Amino acid sequence: MKWKRIKYAVLNFKTKLFGGMTIFSKIIAGKIPSYKIAENEKFYAFLDIFPLREGHTLVIPKKEIDNLFDLPDAYLSEMLLFAKPIAKAIEKAFDCNRCGMSVVGLEVPHAHIHLIPINEVNDMNFMQPKPQASAESLKKVQENILQHLL
After folding, report:
1. How far is CA 107 from CA 10, 24, 87, 94, 139, in A?
2. Cys-Cys link to 89, which of 26, 42, 125, 149 (CB 3.0-4.6 A)?
3. pLDDT in tens, the chain (150 residues)
4. Rg (CA), the chain
5. 19's torsion region: left (phi>0), alpha (psi -120 to 50) or beta?
6. 85-108 burial, b for 16+ CB within 10 Å, e for fewer?
7. What secondary structure does DSSP assign to the chain, as a single string?
8. Contact 149/59 with Cβ under 8 angstroms?
9. Which entry of 110, 112, 114, 148 is annotated as an active-site residue?
10. What is the largest CA-CA distance in the chain?
């Protein structure tokens, strides 16, 4: 357990040391392309290119902070309100019982929420393989969600 914490601390330190921006901050800044779903002055939502399920979307604050629960209360509340219409659009766009939400935050040291269309609990199992989706597939998924986003 301690080794995993040390590994994560090193990853976080390396991110700050070499460039000072997380990969998510680079996406927000347009330095790395993404399949954007929604954006406002505080938050950005885009497709995960290694989705657990088709429609897997990440919602991130533009404020670079590592732990979601270190966000100020009002900011965290606004983030959930920003995510809500996206989750509803995902539910309409895909054959699913609901849009599941998960906060893991161990792969990228930048707070984020996973929105995933699910039919059963195992649909959110992050231990299963996550192959990279093709550009064509991601574009179709993006268009599908955007059609349902109010």
Report:
1. 12, 11, 22, 26, 24
2. 149
3. 555 455 445 555 555 555 578 999 999 999 999 999 999 999 999 999 999 999 999 999 999 999 999 999 999 999 999 999 999 999 999 999 999 999 998 889 999 999 999 999 999 999 998 899 999 999 999 999 999 997
4. 15
5. left
6. ebbebbbbbbebeebbeeeebeeb
7. -HHHHHHHHHHHHHHHHTTS--HHHHHHTTSS---EEEE-SSEEEEE-SS-SSTT-EEEEESS--S-GGGS-HHHHHHHHHHHHHHHHHHHHHSS-SEEEEE---SSSSS--EEEEEESSGGGG-TTS--PPPPHHHHHHHHHHHHHH--
8. no
9. 112
10. 45
Q: Which amino acid type is present at position 79?
A: M
Under 8 Å between Cβ of 76 and 68: yes
Q: Map out the domains of the chain with their CATH numbers.
A: 21-148 (3.30.428.10)
pTM of the model: 0.87
Alpha carbon distance 108, 92 (integer Å)? 29
